[in-house]
Write a structure and sequence with these properties.
This protein is mostly helical and 234 residues long. The chain is built from nine helices and no strands.
């Protein structure tokens, strides 16, 4: 990519942001950094949490920079999850999320709105929703049993988070608004997982706060994407 193209893409990432979206991005990152420093979390935990928040906010905005922040977050979070023995989270991030960042960057890059410089949003039909529910239920039961055998922490919570995340990532790349409903499920389950880990002495408070922010962001972005997908369908 030439220097002019890089500058063009960089400029487009800053276009179209509303005041409340910019405020939300900086507020979420500031809260995580402040509380993490107060609780004396590690530098890795703080960087992972901050880039993770930047990733989900940029995803909600439909910007390609989401995949840059996401790559940094994924690598660091996989290490943190390994230390906490959440093996499903480790495998999810290292073996699935990481390569999917590059695929997502490619797909989104070819489906950007030339006026807003955001990815095009759309809605899923009823048949697609039914298939997703079936896949999640069966996948959680099978994967939870596997994690239980290898001694993972909270195996079925871990499995539910992992399976829903796999599906959510796919429909996120496909630009469906329903991804945010799945992320809400993932975020609730994962908040419980990290809250339990923190209560048992794990020092990754930044990771716990990160997932709480993810949860709030998912609710906000679902309504945003739902409204824009409806508008695009007209």
């Amino acid at each position: 990519m030439t220097g002019s193209k890089i500058r063009k893409h960089f400029k487009e990432e800053f276009m179209g942001w509303k005041i409340w979206e910019v405020f939300w991005l900086f507020l979420a990152c500031f809260i995580i950094m402040l509380l993490s420093i107060y609780w004396k979390d590690t530098a890795m935990g703080i960087i992972s949490a901050t880039t993770g928040v930047a990733c989900v906010v940029c995803t909600g905005k439909g910007k390609l920079s989401a995949y840059l922040f996401g790559t940094i977050n994924i690598v660091l979070y996989a290490i943190i999850a390994y230390n906490a023995k959440f093996y499903g989270e480790v495998m999810l991030n290292a073996l699935y999320y990481l390569p999917m960042q590059f695929y997502g960057l490619y797909v989104w890059g070819n489906n950007m709105n030339s006026e807003t410089h955001e990815v095009k949003k759309r809605e899923m039909n009823k048949k697609g929703k039914g298939i997703i529910v079936l896949v999640i239920v069966l996948g959680t039961l099978v994967y939870g049993a596997i994690l239980n055998i290898i001694g993972g922490s909270l195996p079925y919570f871990d499995a539910l988070s992992t399976v829903v995340s796999v599906v959510a990532m796919i429909i996120s790349i496909k630009m469906y608004a329903e991804q945010w409903l799945l992320w809400i499920v993932v975020d609730i389950v994962t908040v419980v997982m990290w809250a339990v880990a923190f209560a048992k002495g794990n020092d990754s408070i930044a990771t716990l706060i990160m997932w709480i922010v993810y949860l709030g962001n998912a609710f906000i972005m679902y309504f945003k994407w739902k409204r824009e997908a409806t508008t695009n369908a007209i």
